[in-house]
Amino acid sequence: MIPTLTLLTLVACQPNGTDDTSLGPQDTVETGAPLEPAWEGERAGEGFGTALTWRGDGLWIGAPHGVPGRVYVLEGDALSIHLEGTGDDLLGFSLVTTSEDTVLIGRPWADERAGAIWDEDGEIVLAGSSSDARLGGYLAASETDLFATTATGWASGVNAFDAAARVPDAITTVGGIPVLGFAWGDAALQTEERSWGRGDDTQSELGYSLASGDWDGDGTQDLAVGAPGTQRVVLLFGSSESWPEVLSEALTIEGDSARFGHALATAAGSGDNADELWIGDPEADGGLGAVWRLSSPVDPSAVPTAEQVFLGTIAAAGFGASLALSDSHVAVAAVGQGESTGSVSRFSRPESP
Ligand SMILES: [Ca+2]
Fold first, then answer.
1. What angle do CA 28, 169, 192 make, to 5 degrees?
2. How far is the centre of ligand 1, averaged over its atoms, from the C-alpha of 246 (Å)?
């Protein structure tokens, strides 16, 4: 029996509904000049930028919705096709860079939707157990293990976890523990030992996006959970006990844009021990899309502020649908809709405020 805890009870004691919790209108910060306007995909509707990951100075870009799926690599100013899948396989729907600096690639519709994980040479690292297993929709890497979502949970080498829920919308690891996010249904978050409900707010899409990092710089990993349906991001702070057995704090950050929290990304902090949390909304500002950064380190006893760092320039392009941070750069995808090719912008990473 999995104990269930409602997140809303966790956040109910936090300051809420005051001016301090609202981002309010903000100007774009002029600290991150784009190195180039953008790089575009080659095929209409291929979903260029659906997934992004950095390895060193190279940016890996998934374009899963073309047939076949494709992975591009941007090195310097040169964009090249690195891998193509076979058929309608969604190659590149997910990407992750491991602690050993290898890039792994999800291919969730491969082989009658059994799914597979490829290494960067197109060799199979892990394959789905049966048709419709959909292995590899999303990927997460801990220091030692790779976790891939399946149609009902996650798989990792010989281990698998069936959450008996819908197809997960997100996965991350916190302190080595895999956490699944579900935007709909009773459970918003689930680990092997515990699940968190979404309470009465059934439209919040709490669990749509996840990111882990040490937001307060206390040496213990924390979790950020996006709720873009209600323009919120919830922070769960780990304790010195093993996560997630004890949650010392929960904070809710409220945005005033359309889908604040749609995308989350972690950036290793500069100058202190805390990580930075970056937040994307592809529908912000009348459809231009925007990207925010939380002030760092976060004080768990106060609602953190978020500054808008980048603002999209093309309506309905979906700028901010996905994000990836390296030590020196920020990549932001405008995945686009319909027949759009999608594009990815690369920015110098602004100094921490
Ligand atoms: Ca922490």
1. 125
2. 12
In sequence order, which ranges of the chain are alpha helices (DSSP H)? 7-11, 110-113, 284-287
Q: Is 19 exposed, middle or buried (0-12, 13-18, 19+ CB in 10 A)?
A: exposed
CA of 154 to the centre of ligand 1 (A): 25
Q: What is the pLDDT of residue 79?
A: 96
Between 2.60.40.10, 2.130.10.130, 3.40.50.720, 3.40.1010.10, what CATH number should domain 4-12+34-235+249-348 receive?
Answer: 2.130.10.130
Spell out the domain ranges in the chain: 4-12+34-235+249-348
What's the 272 CA to ligand 1 centre distance in angstroms?
13
pLDDT tens for 252-275 read 888 878 999 999 999 987 666 899
The CA 109 to ligand 1 mean position distance, Å, reads 36
| Of residues 25 and 136, more confidently modeled | 136
Annotate 255-272 with b (16+ C-beta within 10 A) or e (fewer): bebbbbbbbbbbbebeee
Residue type, 209: S
What Å distances lie between residue 337 and 33, 73, 276, 331, CA to CA? 25, 22, 29, 19
Distance CA 31, CA 1 (A): 50
Q: pLDDT, tens digit, for every residue of 73-117?
A: 999 999 999 999 999 999 999 999 999 999 999 999 999 999 999
